[in-house]
Every structure is written in C-alpha cells, then in structure tokens.
Design brief:
- The protein is α+β, with helices and mostly antiparallel strands.
- 46% of the residues lie in helices and 21% in strands.
- It contains 28 helices and 29 strands.
- The protein has an eight-stranded mixed barrel with strand order 21-22-24-25-26-27-28-29, surrounded by four helices. Strands 1-5-4-3-2 form a five-stranded antiparallel beta sheet, sandwiched between helices.
- α2 packs across α7.
- The longest helix is centred in the N-terminal third of the chain and has 55 residues.
- The protein is elongated.
Length: 856
Amino acid sequence: MDLLSKWLKSPASMIFVIALIVTICAWLTYAFLSANDKTLPAHSFGKNRIQSIALDRQILFQTSHVEKLVNHLKSLKNFSDRDIAQVLEQAKYDKKVFNYVWLAANEYSTGLIELLNQYQMLELPYESSTSANPLYISQSEAFKGTIASSVSIKEAGVLFVSMNLTSFINTNTDVYKVRALPCFHLSLSSSSTTALNSLYQSKALACQGVSDSSAYDTHSFSWLGHKLTFIIYPPFSPIQNEPRSLIKLLLAMLALMASLIVFYVYRSRRYEHKIESLLKDRGQSLKEVRTEYSNLFMLSVDGIYRASLNGNLLKANPAYATAFGYSNEDELCIKVKNIGKQLYLDPKQYLDFINLLKKDQRVIGFEWQSQDQFGRRIWLLENAYLTQQDNGEIYYEGFIANVTEKKKVEAALKHQAQMDSLTGLLNRATFVSQMSLFIDQNSARQSAIFFIDLDKFKTVNDQYGHHVGDELLVEFSRRLQACFNQDEMITRLGGDEFAVFLKDVTGLPQLHELADKVVAGMRKPFAFSNGFNFKISASIGISMLDESVKNASEGLKQADMAMYEVKRNGRADFIIFNQGLNESERRRSLLENNLLSALKHNEIYINYQPIVCFETGEIKGMEALIRWKNETLGEVSPAEFIAIAEQINLINPFSNWLIHHVCHDLKALIKSSGNPNLFVSINISPKQLLSDQVCDNLLMSMEVNQLTPKNIKIEITETAIYDQEESVVRQLRRIRSYGIGIYIDDFGTGYSSLERLTQYPFDGLKIDRSFVKNLVPGNSQDVILKASVKMAEMLNLVVVVEGIESHFQYDFFKTLKCEYAQGFLLYKPLSLYELSQEILQKNHLSTSLPSDETIR
C-alpha cells in the first residue's frame, strides 16, 4: 500500500491515471445513455411554467405573511403579554407553512439556543444584506430545506420564524411525479461563495449530471431582508436495463481506480486539513487572546500601565487615568514624563520602588501615596514586573489599585483601637504600650508620670446625670492638654482617671510647676450645656522615674500610690512619690491580706467609751469602738484599717458583726445595771448606707435583743454624706422613721450648712475633738464653739462634746449647757466588763472628776 501511495504521488503517474479515468468515464457515459431508454426528458420542465408560477406565488404569499406578522408586532404601542399573544393567535388562522416561536426578553438567550440546537441551525453571513436579522439554515436531514431568522421586536422580545422550502414542491404534479423528492439548490443572491452554497452544492451537481441547463426551475424571493434563490432539479433516473459484462468489468476497474484516487486524496487532504486546522486554531486563539487582553486592559477596574525605567509613562488604561483624576488616559501619558516627580508625593519612595524592581525583577504589594490633579491625597497599591521589548529596551508593566478608602478605614479603626472615644486622648492600652516602648529604648531616667483622679466625680454623675459627667471629662481633658506640650503622652485610663507621661524632665521644680498649672486649671468653674456651673478638684500623684522602673506598670503604680495618699489627706492637692509611700503601700498590702481573715480568727473586738451627762455626771451611754489586734501587726488603728475594709468591700460584714455584738452587749448592760435608758452610739460607714442592709440589720438586732429605738444611735461623718448625698439621705430618713437617733460625727470638719442641718434627719451633733483640744484659756476658739452650740440649740439638736481632756474644757461646755461629754478626762475606752463595773459603781456616787494630772 505504501508503494502504491508513493507511485500515486508521482506527477506522471497521476496524469496517466486521470487520463485513463476520463476515457473510461466517457465510454461509460455513452454506454449508459444508449442503454437507458427511460430517462426523464430534459425539456419536461420547460413545458410546465404554470406550476412554476404557482410555486412563486406560494413562496411570495408565505413570505409576505411573515413580514406582515413582524410588522404587526413592531407596530404595537404596548408590548404587553396580552397584545403580543393576540397578534400571534391571529397568525394561527392564516394559511401558512411557516412556523414561529415568540421569545420574551427574559427567555431570549436560552430559548434561542435551544431552538437552534433543535433544528441544527447554522447562522449564515449577511455582509451585503440590508437586514440586521440573522439568517439560519438547518443542516439536519430531518429539517432539510428549512430556513429561519430571529427578529428583535424592540425591547419586548424576539420572534423566531422558520419555513421549510421543500413543502412548496408538489410531488403529485406531472412536473415532479417521480419516485424520489427532486434535488434543489439554495443560494444567497448577494454572494456565490457562502456557506449556504457549499452546503447544497454537491446535491445540486448530482442532479445536473443528467440534466442540461434547461432542466431546472429557478425561484428568487426575499426572506426578511435577505435575497435568496431557490433552484429545483429533477432527480437522477437510474438505468433500468441490465448492462453488459464488459460494462461490469469497466465499472469494477473504475471503482478500483476511484478507490485509489480517493485514498490518495483522503490521505493528502487529511494532512492538509490537520495543518490548516492547527493554523486556523492558532490564529483564532491568538485573535481571542488579543481581544481578551484588549478588553481586560480597557475595562479593568485596576489601573494597568507600562513605563520606562526612567519614569516615562508609556501606556495606561482608563482606570489608571481615573485614579489620578484624569478622564483620558492619553492626556495622562502625554503629561507624565517622570512618574517619581509628578505622581509620587515622596520621590525617594519611587527610587526605592525602582531599586527593588531591578533587584528582584518584580515588586508585589508596594504601597505609596500620591495626589490627583485636584490635589486630593490618595493611597495606591502597586504590583509590577520587568519585561523587554523586541528591540532590547527594558521597561516595566504592572497595575495599581486605589486603596484610599481602605486606608481611611484602617486609620479609623486604628484611631478607635488607640484612642479614647469620649475625650480623644490615648486609651490605657496604647498609653501603656507606648510608654513601655519608650522606657525599653531610652530607660526611664529623667522621665515622670502624673496620675490624676477627679475628686467626687461619682457625685457629679449621680446628681447631674452621666451626660454632665461626660461633658466634665471632655472639658477636663482639654484643660489638661493645655497644661502640657503636644509631644507629651496624655491618656484617659478609664472613668475619671487620667495620666500624663513626661519624656524629659529637668527636675522636681518642673514637676511642681506643672502640677500647680493643673491645679490652677481646675479653679475656673466648669460650665455645662444644661446651664449648671460648678468647680471640681483633682488629686494628683506624681512619680519621678529612674532606672529601677522597667515598664509603664511600675511607673503607674508609683504615681497611683502618690495619688491615693492625696486622697487620704483630703484631696485637691498633689504629692510626689517617695520610698516612704512605698513602705506605706507595703504595709497597706499587709493589712489588706490579714484583714481578710480577721473576723474568722476572732481578731476583731469592741471597746466602749462612756458618754457622761454634763448635768449629773452619770454614764448615760457609750460609743462602740471597733478594734483589731493581729499576732503579727499588733494593735491596728481603726483609722488605718476601716478605710481599707471599705475599699476591699469588707465594711458590710464588719458592720453586720458590729451591730449584732453591740446590741447583744447593750442588752447585758441594761440587765446588769437595771437602767433601760442606756444607749449605744454606732459609727456607720457611708458605703453601708447605699443599701437597705444597715437599717434591716439594726431592726433585726433590736428585735432579737429586746431593745427600743431610744437605745440605739448611729453616727455618720458629715463629709461622708456629701459623697453619695441622695442615697445616704434616703437611708437616713428610713432609719429615722423607726425612731433611731442620728448624730453628725466630727461636726465642724466638713462643709455643713444651716440648710443641710435643717433638711437632714439629724437628732444631734458631736463637736469634733480637733476643735476641743485647741480650747485653752485666752484664745479665740471659744467664739466658734459657742456659735456652734448656740446653732445646735436653735435647731433643737443634742450636743455631744468629744475629746474633753481638761477641767477647763469640761466646765466651758457645761456652762454652755451641752448635754453629753466624752473624753479621756472622764473615761478611756473600756472593755465590756470594765464598763459594766463602772456603771454599777459610778452612777450612784459623786460626780467629782479626776484631776488633769491623772489623765494619760
């Protein structure tokens, strides 16, 4: 077979074979025409022009109906489903051979594809056609001769119309009365080389093999703007006489030769087709790639560009131009001759970009800042790579994304994460982080920290509302910022606590000056949106840091200790941290740890200091004094541990224990003395008066121990009232409603006013020992004390004088007709047993007092 193939590839061999085949075909044609006496007359078509004219009319009639239907649809004013359906329904009753399918706008895409697949339609080119309607023709044998078009009816949808041309051929007429359907040929009048011609040409030639030029009918017609020609050929009539044996032999030789030629042609065309197909596919792929790249380049939302290494912008897409505020990319390319100087805010950053590009051949995720032609700052994210042109010139290409909004969001989130939302100052976490970083890099030497706490801020919130409290914090933060340089770190630690970190301090005088500045800034009253105006103070703790401080927490702890020392000493001042405070803090920590278990270990006990009647000298009552004795710490002053108990929330358990034991002891004293009028004064912390617990405890203990309200009196410091005034007064009134007496303790040390004394539910007052101890013959202290006693008398308040340590003091207050006396001149604090003995021995004896020398 290979030898035969090589022989057939020779030109001489091919000429010989072709000449032989032509000779045989000529002889066979002659023999065929001689032997066949029943071939169809070639001129039979010419005698039936009537049928041909009728066929023209049928085609014209149907095509006119198609155009009428299309025009009727296009003329509709309202493309509602009802109107369209009415037009299509009317078309059903017309005598027609064409078919139509209506595709609404929402089903056009998928519906058209399904119809084309169903009829195996091929779309034909219509370059010279006046119609914009696509032309399709079926390639299927089942729908042979079917043509179709899709007509857009404005925005309403598409009408798909098809017509089978073979339905016009009447095989029952004399013209076409043969056993098989006649051959036909369809062509576009405007083009003779279209795919339509190629599709039917072989079938037409087969018919022409036995027909002369007059043996066919030609019908030209218009189909929705396309000019078509429809040609009908008679079918090939087979030979009916049996050929002779020579004809069989020649036919066999012809078949063999034809097979060899077909094999050769097939093999040659096979390789040619492969090559042509590969070339076509390659060309089509390149064309598609170019088109896709062009579309991607022009329509990309990211800016794509090409530039030379010296900064000349060579090419850019619209998105690149838009990023810089230009509406035309060509204008941008003409103007930008140096990207670094014209587009970058920092030209040095562009040099870094180029150096990185040369080093790594590509740059990924490079962020830089620019501004558009209107002066607006923008952030860009760039990816780029080096490439080389055919002429050897090196340039780079890449794309940019505008990340300005992302940067704004990041900045906002960073601000929220680092700043206090109310005041705009640094928040605690950021402050601690930045301060620790500074200390790590520079050490803490020559730096300082201010710890500032607003005094009685909770009272502001309770009395005026949280919105006033917020306004106070905002205004205070402004005043605080005005006291320090802009490079100092200022923070709101939380609540009403602020801190300032000074990075470079010359010495203690500078700290004093800054602290005075902060205190001076607080002297001006704060004004609020609701019309309120008032002053508020601040307690300031300052720590001058040294190398021993390793982080922000240690520095804050020192300043915090100093601030709390200010609070303990009366607020509205500043203190600079020293090691003494450190020792105080260590002792405080030790007290706190031991106090937690003091009640459990029975380390808490009670002493009683008798309260004596000025007039009779009898013991009328006593003040309960809580005491603490620890194995390690020894005797601890109540002034020291009561404040700690309040801070660590132990005051309520202590108070409940105290009330229970005092009432129990008083019951025993009343029983032993036989005096049912004995009373006891119990000191109550203001924190206990924030709930109903104290009142409930008093009532329960009185009931259990069979006491009356006249046996119980409570004492509360006047300064404590004003910290939680509303809540405290409400509880005091409740207690007073049960008949329990209420006394102001340490009267004269606070900010009492006549208005408060008249409005609050007080039964008496205790003049503080600080006033009494300064009362000596010849000074002016007596004026103040006389006025205080006179005021109490006018308000019907019982006066108890504490801290009496001399006969002069005793006589002075006795002359003023004060009710009760208390002090070391009379009695020191006693145990329960000692007190019971004193009551039994002294209440019925002389009222003579010990000499001053016996008082220790």
